[in-house]
Write a structure and sequence with these properties.
mainly alpha, 3 helices
Length: 80
Amino acid sequence: MPNIGPTELIILLVIVLVIFGPKRLPGLGKQLGSGMRDFKEAVTAKHEQDDEDERPALTASTATEDVSTAKAAERTGLDG
């Protein structure tokens, strides 16, 4: 695939300017930037979520024991 030179880049920018007009170009640039930012955040969040999935999960029996211990401490007036 050949590299895009300055001449091809100028031709591409002129075509985009003719199609969208000078008033819409700043808005299109802003939308493109926010779209790229959202994509990057989504990819980063996906990796963080994968990291959290690898950590040992709290089992149902452990969660039940924690709740039972907290309720027992509450009834007896102890802070546990």
